[in-house]
Design brief:
Elements lengths: L3 H28 L2 H8 L2 H13 L5 H17 L3 E2 L6 E2 L6 H34 L11 H22 L1 H6 L1
Antiparallel strand pairs: 1-2
Helix pairs in contact: 1-5, 1-6, 3-5
């Protein structure tokens, strides 16, 4: 019962999202300190939990919610949105030059947060596709077939990006 249209619908969107995620993560990696990149990259766990809730209706336990709040707090502390200078906790205490802070956020912080959100969204879509009752008799899509569909869609997406990017024109 396999057909190209279904394969592109099921594997194409997560594959395209993963391609955008990787490009955003690369941009952030080039513009952030390693510790900041790694801490902010872990917010994909938070976005995965949120997207699984929104897309699949999966709720988190109290312990999971506490863990997610700690994760978010650590990201906010690393980005100096929250300052823990004793004895008070203050918000927005980053300091520094405004232009540098703006560039840090637009070329580093925002891309990694976008990549983390896209990772959670694509993961939730993939999980939904694998567990959907529209798949095979077991109640989900065959994971090997799904991976092949996503890999093929990723290859097509990256090949198409070569046609429209400055790097692609240099390669051609």
């Amino acid at each position: 019962g396999w057909n190209l249209k279904t394969a592109l619908m099921i594997g194409g969107l997560p594959a395209a999202l993963y391609c955008v995620q990787n490009m955003a993560a690369l941009m952030a990696y080039q513009n952030l300190e390693p510790l900041t990149f790694n801490v902010l990259n872990q917010t994909k766990t938070l976005s995965a939990a949120l997207c699984c809730y929104l897309i699949m209706g999966r709720k988190q336990s109290k312990a999971q919610m506490a863990s997610l709040i700690i994760l978010l707090s650590s990201a906010l502390i690393i980005e100096k949105v929250i300052s823990l200078s004793a004895p008070f906790v203050s918000f927005g205490g980053g300091g520094g030059v405004a232009a540098t802070a703006t560039q840090h956020f637009t070329q580093g912080g925002a891309p990694i947060l976008l990549a983390s959100f896209i990772s959670g969204l694509a993961g939730a879509l993939a999980q939904k596709n694998l567990q959907s009752t529209s798949g095979d008799a077991k109640g989900g899509r065959n994971p090997y077939l799904f991976n092949m569909e996503m890999n093929s869609a990723s290859a097509m997406t990256l090949a198409a990006s070569l046609l429209f990017s400055a790097h692609g024109s240099r390669i051609r």
